[in-house]
Specification:
alpha+beta, 2 helices, 3-stranded antiparallel beta sheet
Length: 90
């Protein structure tokens, strides 16, 4: 039988902070130069939402996707920087 010990307030606060930080991440679309996309310059709440927007726009502008898409996706980091998750053209 397992005995569950109460967590210290520090452990609870650390885990709550990590959950909040992960849920506060935002995503953005970038162009071939890695700069914020000139038309799709917005923040998205998930990778799927950002990529869906990119694909929809791409198909409206260029037709069905038949090769690499010239749009990338970045995610915000805890330090306020951006990290590339999907490079343009891949």
């Amino acid at each position: 039988m397992a005995i569950s010990l109460p967590q210290s307030s520090h452990a609870r606060n650390s885990s709550q902070t990590r959950v909040r930080a992960q849920s506060c991440r935002t995503y953005r679309l970038v162009d071939l130069q890695g700069e914020p996309h000139p038309i799709l310059d917005d923040l998205y709440e998930s990778l799927d939402a950002a990529w869906s927007e990119a694909l929809n726009w791409w198909q409206e502008e260029f037709g069905p996707v038949q090769g690499p898409v010239g749009i990338g996706v970045e995610v915000s980091t805890l330090s306020g920087e951006w990290r590339t998750l999907r490079y343009p053209g891949t």
